[in-house]
Amino acid sequence: MLDERSKSVLLAVIQCHINSPEPVGSRAVTKKYPFGLSPATIRNIMSDLEEMGFLAQPHTSAGRVPTDLGYRYYVDTLKDNNPLINNELVSELNNKLEVIRQDINTVLDEASRMLSSLSHYIGISVSPNEATSTLSKIELIKYRENQLAVIMFTDEGIIKNKVIAIDPELSQSNLNRIAEYINAQHAGHTVEEIKEKVINDLSQDRLRCDDLISQAVRICRDVFSSSPGNVYVSGLSEVLQLPDFCDIDKIKELLRAIEDKHIILRLLDQVSDAAGTQIFIGSENPLEEMKKLSMVVSTYREGSRPIGAIAIIGPTRMNYQQAITIVASTANYITDMLSNK
Question: Which of 48, 120, 123, 227 has the fewest CB atoms within 10 Å, i.e. is most exposed?
């Protein structure tokens, strides 16, 4: 536990470093914050904080910078990581996203751009994993002699298009009947639930007696092979302008972490069941590729079920308070949109 004086100095150093990338010296803290303490006293407190692991000194003659532990202490002092809703931000979200709310993928693409433009970090949006999507309706259209175009509508507002191989003998009339059968049997169920039922149906003897049902089940098997959600990434050029990424090695690390979308999906999959806004600072990140970055992430929900995520990724020298507010407000907006569609 830190005493109040040490706590105040630590938070002052962190805020100074968030505002400017340079190491923070005792004189800078004395000038900016009226603690009534001499630079020598501030310097001694900073030295103690360094021994405790909250600060580090990059060079002997330089000031100090926060460690991941220091940033964690700072983040934990923010109001329960649950900031007040930013009304100006919510209004901007409403104005920009309202006109495209019928298609969640378009909303998420635009949301990632807004996350980046508002924070000046990298904005990430992940659409619902197909396995958790709820089927609303399916349409089957004969595309070529042996190919079928499938259009799947979900309750979350996602429209999935897929082309699969079929028996050339199947007519459009039969495909319409199959679509009616699938909708009657499976509408209102998640893709994951449908897959389980299809596996069970494939083992039933009755399929041998009804060729149309057999075709329907096999089409379901091909259609409902789920895939991870889409990942929308915006703002890489913005974040590369930050002084935190001024050398080529840091830029390469950032690119490795961001360009492989499977890394983002793996990371977000590990936090998808948690409620509220979560903050991962540097070494706290569960994936090696993210150990020198920070991420603020929140899930959005349909009812009580988390179905996707939005996040901001940037350097550990991040404006966490602003990032938390932006992410929380955006996630809340998307959740409300899904609730009131």
Answer: 227
The DSSP symbol for 284 reads: G
The per-residue pLDDT for range 74-95, each reduced to its tens digit, is: 999 886 555 555 677 667 767 7
Instruction: Give DSSP secondary structure letters for 155-211.
Output: TTS-EEEEEEE--TT--HHHHHHHHHHHHHHHTTSBHHHHHHHHHHHHT-GGGGG-H
> Distances from the Cα of 213 to the Cαs of 95, 175, 216, in angstroms?
47, 11, 5
Q: How confident is the model at residue 193 (pLDDT cuts 50, 70, 90)?
A: confident
pLDDT in tens, 219-253: 887 777 656 667 888 888 878 888 888 777 777 77
- Domain range for 206 is 131-223
Q: What is the pTM of this model?
A: 0.75
For 208-271, the DSSP string reads GG-HHHHHHHHHHHHHT---PPPEEEE-HHHHTTSGGG-SHHHHHHHHHHHH-HHHHHHHHHHH
C-alpha to C-alpha distance for 204 and 110, rounded to whole angstroms: 46
Q: Determine what percent of the chain falls in helix, strand and coil, rounding each to the nearest 5.
A: 55, 20, 25
Contacts 24+ apart (CB under 8 A), 92-98: 92/118, 93/329, 93/330, 93/333, 94/333, 97/333, 97/337
If asked whether residues 209 and 236 sit together in one domain, one would say: no
**Are residue 26 and residue 175 in the same domain, yes or no?**
no
C-alpha 248: how far from its chain's center?
26
Domains: count for the chain: 3
| 3-state secondary structure at position 279 | strand
CA distances from 243 to 65, 199, 287 (A): 14, 54, 24
Do 93 and 37 belong to one domain?
no
User: What CATH number is attached to the domain comprising 46?
Assistant: 1.10.10.10
- Dig out the tokens for 165 from the structure: 């191989």
